[in-house]
Amino acid sequence: MTIPALESAAGPDADGKPGTAPRPRRMVQPAFLAAGLGLVGLAAGMAAAVRGSDAADPLLTYAVVMAAACAATVWGLWLTVDRRLLRAAETLSREAGLIAHGNAEGAVGGRVPLARYGDLVPMARAVNDLSDKLAQVRRDIAHTVAESTATAEEQKTRLAAVLRDLHEGVLVCNTRHQILLYNQTALDILHLTGDLGLGRSLLHFVVAEPVTHTLERLSLRVREGRHLSHEHGTTAQFVGATTDGRILLEGRMSAILQEPEAEPDGPPAFGSPIITGYVLTLSDATSELAALGQRDALLREATEGFRAPIANLRAAVETLYDTPDLGPGERAAFESAMLESCDSLSQRLERVTASYRNVVTGSWPMSDIHSNNLITLVAHRAGADQPAGHPLAVTLTGLPQWVHGDSHSLVLLFAQLIGRVHGLTGATAFDLEAAGPQDGDRWVYLDLVWEGAAVPSATLDGWLEQALPGGLGGLSAGDVLQHHRSTAWSEPLPMVDGTPRARLRVPLPPAQSPRSAHPRPRAGARPEFFDFGLLHQPLATSELGRTPLDRLHYVVFDTETTGLSPSTGDEIIQIAAVRVVGGRILTGETFNMLVDPKRPIPPESIPFHGIGDAMVAGKPTIDAVLPQFRGFVSGAVLVAHNAAFDLKFLKMKERAAGVSFDCPVLDTMLLSRMLLGNDGDHTLDGIAERLGIAVVDRHTALGDSLVTAAIFLRMIEMLRERDVRTLDDAIRGANILVELAARERAF
Predict the structure, then answer these.
(1) Is the pLDDT of residue 83 over 80?
(2) d(CA 640, CA 232)
(3) Angstrom distance (rounded) from CA 739 to CA 533
(4) How confident is the model at residue 600 (pLDDT cuts 50, 70, 90)?
(5) Are 251 and 239 spatial neighbours (Cβ–Cβ below 8 Å)?
(6) Which residues make Cβ contacts (< 8 Å) with residue 737, sequence separation at least 6?
(7) 126: which residues sit within 8 A by CB, 6+ positions away?
(8) Cα separations (Å) of 15 from 167, 451, 730, 737?
(9) 179-182/169-174 β-pairing
(10) β-bridge mates for residue 201, sequence order
(11) Which comes out higher in pLDDT, residue 182 or 124?
(12) Do 280 and 170 contact (CB within 8 A), yes or no?
C-alpha cells in the first residue's frame, strides 16, 4: 500500500524549517503506515498458509479476505484524514499565523475563507470571530474619538462657509512676484490709496515668506505631475500679512501653467508644465485673527491666572485645619464653604481651558496635505537654515499619508526641531516618516528619527516655548501644536548594531477628504503568471547570496500595461519603483515615469490603471525609459508582486533599449506561498488586508510599489521565523515552488 506524500517541498515544519512536514503529520503518517503494512503482511502470510495447506480452510480464507479489506480501509481512512483534516488544519494554522502577524496597526479584521475548510469550519469561524472582535474594539474606540471632535469640526465648517462667500481681492503676478494685474478690492484689503503700480514687486506690500513658500509647494506639485490628480489641482491656501504687520491676510494662490515648447523642426516636447505666474486671491483676516489673538490672551489669562488663586484657596483651607480657635460648628461650615468654592473654581477652570482649545483649533486655517510634500519641504528648509559646511540630511521614509494642517507653520516647526536636536545631540542625519493610525486611534504620526539619545522632557518643553523664526505674530512651536490639537514627545528606540537611536513624535489630525477615501474602481485583480524560465533563478553564490535579507538593498517596482499579453503587442505605459535600504522605505527615492506605448490604450484596460491616451501622449518611449530605470536599480535586488508578469515585459524590450536586467529578483507572491501554502489568498490586496497595512494612492504603479515594499518588509520578519534568512535561502525556496508549479502543470 502506498501512502501519499504529506509534506510540501516548501512548507515549513513546526520548528520553522522549510522542506519537512509539520510534527503532527510525521507522527500520524507512520501510525497509519505501520497499521496498513501490518495488515498487508498478515494477509500475505495467511494467503501463503492457505496455499500451502492440503485442504482449504474456509475460516483461513475468510481471514485473508478480511485482512486485505482492513488494509484497504486503513488506506482509505488515511486519505480521508489527510485530505479532510490534516492538510486543512495545516493551511488553517498558516492563515491564522498570517492574521496574527497582521492587525498590529489599524482596525482591519483578517478573514479566513470558511468554504475551504470542510470539517474544520468551526475552527476557521472561531479564528474569524476573534479577528472581528479585535477589529470591532478598535472601531468603537475610533468612533468615540470622532464623536468628541464633532463640535470643533462643526465650527470649522461654518467658518469655511463664511470665508467662501467673502468678496476677495485679486492680483496676478509673475514668478518674480511682479504685479501684472489687480482689482480695486485688493487695494481696499491692503488699505492702500492710489495704485499698486504695475511691475512693482508684491513683496513690497506683503510678507515674503508665506508667498514664496506657497509658490514652492505648487512648483513641487507641478514638477512631479501631481497637479493632474490632486484634489486642489494647482491651488493652495496660505496665511500672510502686510509688511507693516497691521493687516493679516488669508490667501489662495493658483498657478498659471505653460506647456513646454518644442524646438523648431524638432521632435515634440515632453515634460512637466512650467509655472509662469500665479493668481492671488486675498481676504482681510485681520479682525478675525486679531479677535482670535485677543481670545487667546484672555483665555490664557483665565487658565493660567486661575491657578494661583486656586492654590491660595487650598492653602487657606489647609491653614484652617491647623487653626484650633474656631468652634466646631463654625469651623465645619467654613471648611465646607471653602471646599465647595474651590471645587467650583476648579470645574470652571477646566471648562474654560477646554473651550479655549476648541476655539484655537477650530479657527486656524488648515487644509489637507500629502505627507511626502510636507516632508520634502521640511528637508529643504532644514538644509537652507544651516550655515555653509554644516549640512543636515533629512531622509523621507515610510508609506505616505494624508494629514490636515497648516503646511507653512508645520514646516517651520519641524525645521526648528531638527536644528535643536542637531545642536543638542550632534546628529546630522535624520529620518522623517509619516506613520498611519495605530491601535485604533485617528492620528497620523510624524516621526523624526536620529542616532543618539532622546531629548529630555524639560528640554523639549523649553523648545516649544520659543518663537519660530519667520512665524507670524511671534508664533511659537507650542502654538503650532496647539492649533493642531497636538503635542510632542521624545523617546528612545531599540538600538541597531549597538548604536542608540531616538525619535521625536508629533501626532497630526488625518485629512478630512484624503485621496484614498475615493479609490478608483478596480476592474479585477491581475491574474497570476508562472513563466518558469524567468522565475527559476540561479543561486547568488557570492557574498551577496549569503547576505541576510534585512541587510540588502532593494528596489521594489511595478508596471502598468495596455494589457496582459506582451507577445501579442501589449506595451508598458508606466514604470514606478521605490528604494528599500536598511529596513526603511525611502519614499523620497522613487522612480515614476509614464511611457508612450505608440499604440491606443484599450478602453477595457483603463479601469485597471486609470491611464488614458491623453496622459501618455508625448511621453518618452520604452527604449528611452528602460536605461534610466536600469540605472536606478543598479546594485539592488529587484522585488515585485507577481514578478513574472513585469519581468516578461522588461525582458522583451531589453535588446531595443540596450540594457539587461540580470539582477536577483524576489517575488512577494512566491514568498506568500512559502509562508501560507498554495491554498491561501496571494493577491496584493488580500495580503495587505490581512497584515493590516493601510495605504495611500493604491492602484497606481508607484502606489502598488509602496504597498509591495511594506508587505515585503513584514515578510522578512516572518521568513526569519521560518529560518529563511539570506538571499540564497529565499531564492532556493522560491525555486522549489516554481519547480512544483511546473510539475503540476505538466500533469
Answers:
(1) no
(2) 32
(3) 10
(4) very high
(5) yes
(6) 9, 10, 670, 673, 674
(7) none
(8) 72, 36, 18, 20
(9) antiparallel
(10) 178
(11) 182
(12) yes
pLDDT tens track for 61-73: 666 677 677 767 7
Q: Residue for cell digits 538644509?
A: 383
Query: What tens digit of pLDDT does each residue of 644-696 get?
Result: 889 999 999 999 999 999 889 999 999 988 888 777 788 888 888 888 786 66
Total residues found in the chain within this entry: 747
Distance CA 553, CA 709 (A): 12
Q: In what order do the strands lie in the sheet containing 489-496? A: 393-397, 429-435, 444-451, 499-508, 489-496
> CA-to-CA distance for 232 and 237, rounded, in angstroms?
10
Provide the 8-state DSSP code for 200.
Answer: S
- Please provide the DSSP assignment of 321-388 as one string: HT---S-HHHHHHHHHHHHHHHHHHHHHHHHHHHHHHHHHHHHS--EEEEHHHHHHHHHHHHHHTSPT
Helix (H) or strand (E) segment spanning residue 559: strand 553-561
DSSP secondary structure, 24-65, as one string: HHHHHHHHHHHHHHHHHHHHHHHHHHHHHSSS--HHHHHHHH
**Predicted pLDDT of residue 573:** 95
The three grid cell numbers given for residue 363, joined into one nine-digit string: 479657527
Q: How far is CA 692 from CA 91, 136, 444, 675, in A?
A: 20, 14, 15, 17
Taking the C-alpha atoms of residue 160 and residue 283, their distance in angstroms, rounded to an integer, is 13
235, three cell numbers = 491651488
Catalytic residue among 213, 484, 609, 699: 699
CA distances from 37 to 4, 48, 76, 508, 685 (A): 14, 16, 14, 68, 47
The CA-based angle 43-48-54, given to 5 degrees, is 130
CA distance 65 to 46: 9
State the residue for C-alpha cell 519537512: 20
pLDDT greater than 90 at residue 578: yes
The 10 Å CB-count burial string (b at 16+, else e) for 18-28 is: bebbbeebeeb
Q: Is residue 60 very low, low, confident or very high in pLDDT (cuts 50, 70, 90)?
A: low
Which of 467, 635, 483, 470 has the alpha carbon at shortest distance from 544? 635
437: helix, strand or coil: coil
Query: How many Cα atoms occupy the beta-carbon half-sphere of 702 within 13 Å?
Result: 17
The x, y and z cell numbers of residue 2, run together, are: 502506498
C-alpha cell belonging to residue 360: 484655537
Tell me how far apart the alpha carbons of residues 743 and 383 are, in angstroms, rounded to a whole number. Answer: 57
pLDDT at 263: 62
Coil, helix or strand at residue 502: strand
Q: What is residue 19's predicted lDDT score, i.e. its pLDDT?
A: 45
Percent of all residues in the chain with a pLDDT value above 70, rounded to a whole number: 67
The number of CA neighbours under 13 Å toward the Cβ of 709 is 34
Angle, helix 701-721 to helix 87-101, in steps of 10 degrees: 110
Residue scoring higher pLDDT (734 or 60): 734
Rounded CA separation 266/474 (Å): 54
Nearest to 6 by CA among 73, 88, 62: 88
* Averaged pLDDT for residues 105-113: 61
How confident is the prediction for the chain on average, in pLDDT?
78
Could you give the CA distance from residue 226 to residue 223 in angstroms, rounded to a whole number? Answer: 8
Q: Which of 238, 272, 267 is nearest to 257 (CA)?
A: 272
Name the amino acid, one letter, at 37.
Answer: L
**Stretch 296-313: mean pLDDT:** 64
Distance from C-alpha of 115 to C-alpha of 128, rounded to nearest angstrom: 13
Query: What CA–CA distance (Å, rounded) separates 218 from 373?
Result: 10
101 classed as catalytic: no
Contact partners, residue 350, CB within 8 Å, separation at least 6: none
